[in-house]
Amino acid sequence: SVLLWFVIPESPRYLARQPHRWDELRRLLLRMSRAVAADIRFSDVREQTTHPRAGFGALFAPGLARDTMALWIAFFMNLLAVYSAFSWLPTMLAGEGLSPSVAGNGLTAYNVGGVLGALLCALIIGRFGSRVPMLLCCLAAAATALLLRSLDVANQTTLLVVGIGLHGLFVNAVQCTMYALCAYIYPTQVRATGTAAALAFGRLGAILSAFAGAIVITQGGASGYLAMLAGAMLFVFVALLSVRKHIPRATVAPAHLKKEH
């Protein structure tokens, strides 16, 4: 955290609202190959007349309420799926008669896939926007969970581990890029509040996963467990489909800051 405090630059939108930090903004823009004159004044065209309120209530202002609720549901169900895997994947595999080493390999594959998925999806949404890539990852996560149900886990352990890795790739691709989606949806003055609120609601899904996983595995075994993961990601799909303000496709030269002499 200390390292990030000194290394990560502040948001240009936030700096544009702080006249005493405009020198910092000019240096940041220079690093971004957007050199500006020393006497330039800055104002944010996109946000200067919209959403003037700050605080928690602003998350439900006209134009934001629907996206806020959709993000909360998406975080809730996605974290339920993520923590169900962290908490119960080895138990589920061991319950199917697999050795502890195979169960450990499955969880490792899930985490490695998650790292790759987060990096790949971040690159993709930076170019193609967030709507289509995130929705496709939701569907792919649900599909891989359902396909795993059809495997003979005792005789297809390699394919099982690969499938678990792919499921982790798609689930975590969605989870990690939802933070970027929050940052885009909410205006500068409530960006941290909106992201934190969505994550806090999502943590309730993480807590629920501890109970849901135990019940589902007890009642339905591996088949029921994988069906739960697939169902959770389909809920995420519907929630993200309901979001109106997705990150758009990249343009050649986005102009978010208005320069005034």
Describe this structure in words.
The protein is mainly alpha-helical and 261 residues long. The chain folds into 2 domains: 8-54 and 252-260, no CATH class; 56-242, MFS general substrate transporter like domains (Growth Hormone, Chain: A), CATH 1.20.1250. The protein has helices at 2-7, 12-16, 22-31, 65-95, 100-128, 131-148, 157-185, 191-242; strands spanning 41-43, 258-260. The protein has a two-stranded antiparallel sheet with strand order 1-2. The radius of gyration is 21 Å and the shape is elongated. Mean pLDDT is 88; it is low at 253-261.
Keyphrases for this structure?
elongated; 8 helices; disordered C terminus; Growth Hormone, Chain: A; mainly alpha; about 260 residues; two-stranded antiparallel ribbon
